[in-house]
Amino acid sequence: MVEQDNVFDVLNERGYVAQSTDVDEIREHLGKGRTCYVGFDPTADSLHIGHLLPILALVHMQRQGHRPVALVGGGTGLVGDPSGKTEMRQMLTLEQIDANAQALKSQLSSYLDFSDGRALLMNNADWLVGLPYIDFLRDIGRHFSVNRMLAAESYKARMETGLNFIEFNYMLLQAYDFLHLYTTRDCTIQMGGNDQWGNIVAGIELIRRKAGGTGHALTFPLLTTASGQKMGKTASGAVWLSRDKTSPYDFYQYWVNTDDRDVQKFLKLYTFLPLNEVLGAAGLEGHELNACKSILAYEVTRIAHGPEEAVAAHEAAGRLFGRRSLPADLLPSSSVPREAGGEEAAVPTTGIAVGRLESGIPAFELFVETGLCASRGAARRLIEQGGAYLNDQRLRSFDQRVSAADARSGSILLKAGKKKIHRINLLD
How much is the pTM? Predict the structure, then answer.
């Protein structure tokens, strides 16, 4: 169903807009259905939380009657975007890029409706890989000022450590993408992170010079948490959208542990809850704010993994850490179908043969094996500092042996602090 609000106002009120071309012009331009795009470079076989904001911006665009283009950078990924990097990205092979691009296409399909041309899923390898180099330099390269390129934010961070020539071409390729989509798909708006502003403006200028047309730009803030940490980064690495890389339970836990100062901002950006309801979170404390965190975690997990996984993660967290109620109208039907094991199935689990546990395994080794700690040294420090638990009992020493005798109903529960949990199931 198409809503009637101007999408620029929707995005601006919810905190998506860092910069844009002339506000009055872009708002008027969005007064009727337009085509817009965001690029996603396939540097991995999954997107992560850092990509969730541009994905949801495209969802907002589609909800308001516009046509989103999710552009997978199979071509630009071969070059590597220098934006925000202090050193050159690892060069991937064409085979790696192709495999990652296919994975991202499948992932994006769970957020946007691509049926009947309502959204487009494209790969810029289709038009970039076969470009004749000399022709590209003559037709496209001549429109770019090296002085202006070097002043762009996307290159500044690399000037001290050294900007590779292949990376220097990235702006030209991204600008060419915008021109190509403008001429072939009537795409008039490019959106991206605020560090992409120079690249997007370069595309607008190229459209003006080569096609005599007008493009528009809208960039998103580069988010950090209230504690100053980059959004989506944890001690163990990125929080991925793929359930194979980050389980729905761990995904839920990331959001439920949001800093109090970020709750309202994240409800605006990462859920579709009505803005007037979100604004009611201002000033809440204690139990009421914790309830808001549960709503945030449930809503984002529902968007990324579906309502059943969101309910399972919520119930598993409630059993292990204490109940936090959710409003009944947020939940699916009370009889949510799940596999045997119910809420326990949502907790990250590793199976270990009983034979391995006969003589016991040192606790610090188990914490590494289950992913609760990144290294043996980290596991030792955690245990020695009193932050590690076995079946809710604090471990006494880093080499305390965990055996089958510690199992309760066929499983052992390990905790790293109050937030990270892992279950070991005993296998015959």
Answer: 0.74
